[in-house]
Amino acid sequence: MLDLYRRVVARFPLGNVSYMFAYGSGVKQQIGYEKVDEKPNSKSVIDLVFCVRDTQGFHAENIHRHSSHYSALRHLGANLVAQYQELLGARVYFNTLVPLHDLGVTIKYGVVHEDHLIDDLINWRHLYLAGRLQKPVTDLIKLDDDSRLKTALEKNLRSACQTALLLLPEKFTAYDLFYAIAGLSYKGDFRMIFGENKRKVHNIVQPQVREFFTLYQPIMKQLSQYMAVDLHGQEPGSRRPAIVFEQDKSGEATRYHLRHLPKELCHRLKRNAACRGDYTDVVDYLAVAPLLPKIVQVSVNDIVWRSSIKQSLKNIATAGIIKSLVYSFRKAQKTFAV
């Protein structure tokens, strides 16, 4: 499939693209979807994201090459398209349900400026693309070890893992950990009420536990002082073999995780905690609060709820009315899927 993805992206202006990745059910195996293999499935959609250094330049060239990918917004010019991308919602511009007949696939692709992606990865400003990148994806550009993006991507994974630890008990399985991580960007998404399969998180995690483990293994090593893994353990409450974790739930460990959370999440925690003072005071209060997991979850949900609504409304204009209705209908069908 990697060859197919490269053939897809080769038709786009890549001169100022600093990072690309493919994600979603058409790329990574999920329960309820046909098996992802070397042959493209005409029913699935390949989701792509282009991270660019020059938003207006990318859209100018892309509109010239592929004007049919865009809604009527293209008539306003690349400058207005770029402003619409960068000033509204989660700062991503999506072209939806784009058929590539010669390759036998349909794609949806987003465009984001590198600075805005880094901001989301580090600070969880919107927890939008940051949420997608907390799950296994297929990278289409290899990043340099010293790049800002690579550092931000690693910070995002570490933040996701530390947030999940605050939600989990002392002992838990690998599935529990990755379910908590994958759920961060879904539980607050208003589309989970109407527009997504209610078992979406399970359907993502269950067939990809190994990929999640590979993705988060470097982070587990970094946090080895606070979490230990038994690769030959048993599920708590049963004798079934499982990868089992045990974490340090002391006040000191909890304070450490709380102090290293993304900026936007810290802001939400400060607002949702029944505690006055600066964030240092909030950390001391939350470290011993019985309702800490609930407060953390509500604070994450606050970020996701806001950004998911704004971005979904924004996508109506970028997709156009017809495509929006078709896409929404397909999503709505998933609500009732098993």
TrEMBL record:
Chief localisation class: mitochondrion
EC number: 2.7.7.41
Pathway(s) it belongs to: Phospholipid metabolism; CDP-diacylglycerol biosynthesis; CDP-diacylglycerol from sn-glycerol 3-phosphate: step 3/3; Lipid metabolism
InterPro entries: Tam41
Membrane topology: Peripheral membrane protein
Localization of this protein: Mitochondrion inner membrane
Cofactor dependence: Mg(2+)
Keywords assigned: Lipid biosynthesis, Lipid metabolism, Magnesium, Membrane, Mitochondrion, Mitochondrion inner membrane, Nucleotidyltransferase, Phospholipid biosynthesis, Phospholipid metabolism, Transferase
Reactions catalysed: a 1,2-diacyl-sn-glycero-3-phosphate + CTP + H(+) = a CDP-1,2-diacyl-sn-glycerol + diphosphate
Coiled-coil blocks: none
One annotated GO molecular function: nucleotidyltransferase activity
Pfam families: Tam41_Mmp37 (PF09139)
Family classification: Belongs to the TAM41 family.
Primary role: Catalyzes the conversion of phosphatidic acid (PA) to CDP-diacylglycerol (CDP-DAG), an essential intermediate in the synthesis of phosphatidylglycerol, cardiolipin and phosphatidylinositol.
Protein name, per record: Phosphatidate cytidylyltransferase, mitochondrial
Organism: Drosophila arizonae (Fruit fly)
Gene name of this polypeptide: LOC108620110
